[in-house]
Amino acid sequence: MANKLVLGMVVGAAVGAGISLLNKETREKTARQVTNVKTDIQYYMNTKGEVKENVGGKLSTVKGLVANIMENKEYYLEKISELKSLTPAVTAMLADTKQSFANEEQLEAEEKLKTDSVIHL
What is the domain partition of the chain in residue ranges? Predict the structure, then answer.
């Protein structure tokens, strides 16, 4: 049963690929992609040393970052803890400020109504 499933998937994929290649634009794009992959493979095969150096450099950079983070782990955890404790206080302060502005706007609106309702002679 599994063999028939795999065979059916392979045949379906092949038929789908064949049908999609009937489109000229798809054929040209596929050809360009195959050429690009081929060129990339040739480049990497010819510059194994350079690729190995680049990967080694990136790896050492990542190792340095990890080491730096591990060295300063306690500092980061302390700052995160401080932020967690400050967040409710800042939220409360913002709510108070918002309420104060709302109250002030309401008082200004009421004052404007009083002055507007006075009859001017």
Answer: 73-116
Which DSSP state fits 121? -
b/e map 91-102, b = 16+ CB within 10 Å: eeeeeeeeeeee
User: What is the reported pLDDT for 1?
Assistant: 64
Dihedral Cα 80, 83, 84, 88, nearest 10 deg? 180
Find the mean pLDDT for residues 16-32: 88
**110 has a pLDDT exceeding 80:** no
**pLDDT for residue 121:** 53
Q: Which two tokens stand for residue 7?
A: 């065979």
Block residue for tokens 């064949």: 18
Question: What separation, in Å, do the N-terminal and C-terminal C-alpha atoms of the chain show?
Answer: 100
